[in-house]
Design brief:
Elements lengths: L2 H14 L14 E5 L4 E4 L15 H15 L7 E5 L5 H13 L5 E5 L8 H9 L4 E6 L10 H9 L10 E7 L7 H10 L3 H4 L1 H4 L7 E5 L4 H15 L5 H15 L4 H14 L6
Length: 280
């Protein structure tokens, strides 16, 4: 075989087995996004988040997650956390806001976002973070699994860590609309069709049990919905007649058919635009 052919084979093998990921400069940013193909940690210059004080109606969950994260940032023991419940009630916003509120005093605390479909690569990511002097919140938004989804097995590497154990400088926060990370009707179907119903879904349902913190988020009532909008108006300097804003806000949520923190922010965005206020 001539030298040219050997060179081509060597180049093909290098493409199939890329070089190990170089350690990024974790001091370059407070947050990173994990990408695959090729695998890399991409710094995020500006995180899309709101201030912690603007999150209304979730005080207990806010305080619990803040305390857990502060202990972790200080180098103490902390739990993985599952934030589950109603859509648009601030689950992902709370994770980002808690990190933002602590990052100033604890610059070693970093937020790393991981997509659900990239869970199979999580073991390699953990190995890369394990030796760092920084502390990482590994964050997966909108986490859920279907009956034939094998990604949940990769998640165990984060929650249990296998024989090596979870890196002590990594904690895992996930959000989901489902408390057990899989649809209730799917749980019932597997139980009814399995030879051993109790074992049919045990492995998947017990995955949520591996989170030390379960923080529930429930639909807000009208007073909480209006309080959210009032807080936004005060924070961004939008001056408007209270009775008019109240009537418009109620009409807005009626046309949407739902009431949540997301709906409150969408109404406020419209209100601020009409009053010539830019949101930054």
């Amino acid at each position: 075989m001539d030298q040219i052919a050997l060179t081509r084979i060597a180049e093909a093998l290098e493409r199939m087995s890329p070089a190990p990921l170089e350690t990024p400069d974790f001091n370059a940013a407070s947050a990173f996004v994990w990408h695959v193909g090729p695998e890399r940690l991409e710094p995020v210059e500006s995180v899309n988040r709101v201030d912690l004080d603007l999150l209304v109606g979730i005080n207990r969950s806010r305080d619990t997650l803040l305390d857990n994260t502060r202990r972790f940032a200080q180098g103490f023991a902390a739990n993985n956390a599952l934030l589950w419940g109603a859509r648009g009630m601030g689950k992902s916003s709370l994770v980002k806001a808690v990190h933002g509120s602590l990052a100033g005093d604890h610059p070693q605390l970093k937020l790393v976002e991981l997509q659900r479909e990239d869970l199979p690569s999580v073991a390699r990511l953990l190995n890369h973070l394990r030796g760092s002097a920084h502390r990482f919140i590994l964050f997966c938004d909108d986490l859920s699994f279907s009956h034939d989804d094998q990604h949940y097995k990769s998640l165990k590497a984060v929650l249990d860590g296998g024989i090596e154990g979870r890196p002590e400088n990594v904690v895992f926060y996930a959000t989901s609309n489902r408390r057990h990370l899989m649809p209730r009707d799917m749980i019932e179907n597997e139980r009814s069709s399995a030879i051993n119903p109790s074992e049919a879904v045990e492995e998947k349902v017990s995955l949520s049990d591996r989170f030390g913190l379960w923080l529930g988020f429930h639909p807000c009532d009208q007073d909480e919905y209006l309080a959210m909008i009032s807080r936004y108006c005060a924070a961004y300097g939008v001056e408007a007649d209270e009775d008019t804003v109240r009537a418009e806000a109620i009409e807005w949520q009626a046309t949407r058919g739902s009431r949540s923190g997301r709906v409150a922010w969408q109404f406020f965005t419209d209100l601020a635009g009409r009053h010539g206020v830019a949101l930054r």
